[in-house]
Amino acid sequence: RRERQRFVDKNGRCNVQHGNLGGESSRYLSDLFTTLVDLKWRWNLLIFLLTYTVAWLVMASMWWGIAYMRGDLQQPHDDTYSPCVANVYNFPSAFLFFIETEATIGYGHRYITERCPEGIVLFLFQSLLGSVVDAFLIGCMFIKMSQPKKRAETLMFSRAAVISQRDGKLCLMFRVGNLRNSHMVSAQIRCKVIKSRQTPEGEFLPLDQCELDVGFGTGADQLFLVSPLTICHEINSESPFFCLSQRSLRNEQFEIVVILEGIVETTGMTCQARTSYTEDEVLWGHRFLPVMSLEDGFFHVDYSQFHATFEVPTPPYSVKE
After folding, report:
1. Which top CATH class is 24-146?
2. What H or E segment, with its residue span, contains residue 52?
3. Under CATH, to which class is 150-311 assigned?
4. Do domains 24-146 and 150-311 have the same CATH topology?
5. Model-level pTM?
6. Residue closest to 85 by CA, chosen among 114, 105, 61
7. What is the pLDDT along the chain (321 residues), one digit of tens a residue?
8. Which of 65, 222, 293, 298 lies at a C-alpha separation of 20 to 30 Å from 16?
9. What are the structural domain ranges in the chain?
């Protein structure tokens, strides 16, 4: 079957674009910090470089302007004359003085004198403005680097989901695994079934979301994700797949969105990993191959068999039938 449009890609990216915001786009500027963090890295680096470059040139021009208005550029800097900033003769020297002050390098060759009140005011303004710009941009870069999005790439989901019997009950199952040795603290999994439907009143819901029970009542949704786990949804009278059979599966159109959340043990930040399964990726009458084996003093996980399944005898009828 031809692959159709997904609501959530296999890698977790949501295929939703917001358009025609009109005046509501100003809300992005009201939360400028989050807007900068959400930008791609190339735009973040460009804004970072441009902000510092413009700030440096503007502040250096202000120091040069003070020296120009006081006539320091035309006067010889000797013991008989007290300039605003010693050893500032042109714009490059004014720029170097600003950089030395901003970066607290303090080479000692250029320095501000006490007979320059406007220079003292500009020096205080430069110190305050530099602290604000540093805190904002460096904080933005730090938050972006410490985001746990890359941690989600080491959380693995099986490529397909399966439907087979477990404990005498028909169940929909898929597998999750953690590739790192560091654990996911308080890991919890949730599932949504996205399917279009029409209400009895005639309203058409194109992307109706329905909760898929993966053990809320029993606590099975709280995962101890040390080794790969098989997540199980029991198909019963309250399940959205109550009327699903092997034959009707070929004609259905739905998408199961899986959301795995937890706290990264090393950083303490919340991480979320997502994936989805369409009806073409649900295998009727299959079961996952075991991946755990006992070695000399430890349990070994063979991830080469993580996605592998094999057929098992399964009734082709729905639970309702």
Report:
1. mainly alpha
2. helix 41-70
3. mainly beta
4. no
5. 0.75
6. 114
7. 456 788 888 888 888 887 777 777 777 777 788 888 888 889 989 999 999 999 899 999 998 888 888 887 777 666 667 788 888 888 888 888 888 888 878 777 788 888 888 888 988 998 898 889 888 888 888 888 877 777 788 899 999 999 999 999 999 999 999 988 888 888 999 999 999 888 888 889 888 899 999 988 888 889 998 889 999 999 999 999 999 899 998 888 899 999 999 998 888 888 899 999 999 999 999 999 999 888 888 888 889 999 999 999 999 998 888
8. 222
9. 24-146, 150-311
